[in-house]
From TrEMBL:
Keywords: FAD, Flavoprotein, Oxidoreductase. Pfam families: FAD-oxidase_C (PF02913), FAD_binding_4 (PF01565). It comes from Sanguibacter biliveldensis. Substrate binds at R416. The keyword Repeat does not apply. GO terms for molecular function: alkylglycerone-phosphate synthase activity; FAD binding; oxidoreductase activity. Its cofactor is FAD. InterPro entries: Alkyl-DHAP_Synthase, FAD-bd_oxidored_4_C, FAD-bd_PCMH, FAD-bd_PCMH-like_sf, FAD-bd_PCMH_sub1, FAD-bd_PCMH_sub2, FAD-linked_Oxase-like_C, Oxid_FAD_bind_N. This is FAD-binding oxidoreductase. The active site is at Y477. Belongs to the FAD-binding oxidoreductase/transferase type 4 family. The record marks R321 as: Important for enzyme activity. FAD binds at D206, S207, F208, T209, H210, S211, T212, E270, G271, R272, L273, G274, V275, I276.
Amino acid sequence: MTDTVKHMKWWGWGNDGVGFHHEDKPGFAPFVAEKVGLDLHTAERAVEPSFDDLDVPASTAPEAFVSALAGIVGDDHVSVDDLVRVIHTYGKSLRDLVRIRGNQILRSPDVVVYPADEAEVQQVVDAAVAADAVIIPFGGGSNIAGSLEPMPAETRTVVSLDLGRMRAVVDIDTDSGLARIQAGAQGPDLEAQLNSTGWTIGHFPDSFTHSTVGGWVATRSTGMQSDKYGDIADIARGLRVVRPGDVLVLRPLPSTSSGPSVREMILGSEGRLGVITEVTVQVHRVPEKRNIFAYFFPTWEAGITAMQAISESDASPSITRVSDAHETGFTMATSKTRSGFSKFTAETALPRIMKAKGWDLDKICLSFIGYEGSTAHAKHQKKLVDAIVKKHGGMGVGEGPGLLYDQKKFDTPYLRDFLLDMGAAGDVSETAAPWSKLLQVHDAVYAAADKAYAEIGVTGWIMSHLSHSYHSGACLYFTFAFVFQDDPLSEYDTVKNAIQQAFVDNDATISHHHGVGREHAPWLEEDISSEGVKVLTALFESADPGAHFNPDKVVAD
């Protein structure tokens, strides 16, 4: 084992306590062993990490500046502590975790500040700009696109502005279905506050348990139920953004023709235009009925065609998701241990029915489709969808698998941490493309990944699902895994770069909902054209001429 991998393994951000243990899933270990050459029963498990082993760059924040910040937010809400600064150094991408575990921290924030309200944010921003410091807004720290890290060459004082104290649902306009929410409110907290009065935001990204509404806006997030509720770009109606000297205020209007959309400029800006302090979002009454049903399709092509037909129909489900054969195999191999009638149905009766239909069990694709609203509405939606599924050769298998999917929907990202404990990579890339390009994109990404695996000399794995449908196209979400060899980050770059390049080479976007940050910036010009990059550069330079707000993200300064 190389020194780099050893370094990674001692920083053991394991998965204990989050509901996933491979011992509970008998099929998981042999599945992983077969597909990526890793036997979880014999692999060396990461040891308990020691923070003392990290080389943390010393804070360079002047004492007078730290004292000034403490005068704004209070002594208890300013920190130059090494552990606090490391926590605010990176997000949660595989690259971030490898660097932490490998003791690769070239630059950390010099001071972390926790304001209590917008007035304190304004004072912190003004003090930082006056001191020629850098401000990096911090929400839940779940970003995986490199949007949070300070640049290694940055010589100015770096302030991580953590909005964690600002997490309240301020007000709900019940006539309009609009809720004012402080930007630091994390998913579970804001949803609990809304649910207590009968409302829901309907936005549930994979990172829901650790991400914030401000972060969702800053990265143009998408939730699992976006087919019904829309992306955050549809949900966020009003914004308050602190800038030097004043607050940019966008009222929550249903629609407006007020020139180029400043709201759209803030969406996806990743902190480069100011600090988002409050978001007014469209909320909905908690639905009377909510069901997720499972379906199978004989092939990936049939599943994609069915999802397109649903998007073009009168049906309006909340979720339209279909996994390709690889992901379906993974899901079935890692499902709960069954017994009795459930075991017979899943392992004997269902395969027998599929074979009788002439299906190749190595090509079947699992789908989850959700329905929400009144009981009558949900029933009607399901009837419309069932007819489409049948027309495209699919079959329904009931609500049971859908209930399990709903219970475990936030667990999947932890598989990456679990594999990393064993010296293996597990990561994701997602994109969106027109319906006419989806199959081409899917096949091209598989070919690119396989070529990259061969280049670094590993047995790799890749799988995919369609996760969000639109009238003109859909999102494809890819998960890939392989065992590290001698140079983890270089090997990761080889695979990740191949996948990203396959996106733009086949008319797909570089990211559907993870943002740009540093991770996807190399492909931005191919995505939006050189003139598009010029426009963005001009926007950032004119709005922030001193490069105080999260510099070098989205486009390099």
